[in-house]
Amino acid sequence: xxxxxxxxxxxxxxxxxxxxxxxxxxxxxxxxxxxxxxxxxxxxxxxxxxxxxxxxxxxxxxxxxxxxxxxxxxxxxxxxxxxxxxx
Length: 87
Fold this sequence. Notes:
By secondary structure, this protein is mainly beta. The protein has one domain: Jelly Rolls (Sandwich). The chain has strands spanning about 1-10, 10-20, 25-30, 35-40, 45-50, 50-55, 60-65, 70-75, 80-85. The strands form two sheets. The chain has a five-stranded antiparallel sheet, with no helix packed on it. A four-stranded antiparallel sheet has the order 3-8-5-6, with no helix packed on it. The model has no long low-confidence stretch (mean pLDDT about 95).
């Protein structure tokens, strides 16, 4: 997995590229200043948290709230995730 920071005016975030099936962004959470939305730009992911999981595909948008634990595992090679900070 690789990542790169992005900035567009007041917006900032990170693009994550998952080369292989099973590449993972581990379980984590955010506070009110760095909580984000996640956009599945390519491929598909298993999104998981404490006691839940859901498969999402290209075009999905996830709007996270502060304090919600979440992680991503690539289900297809070449999947891409774009996170944009809301704070």
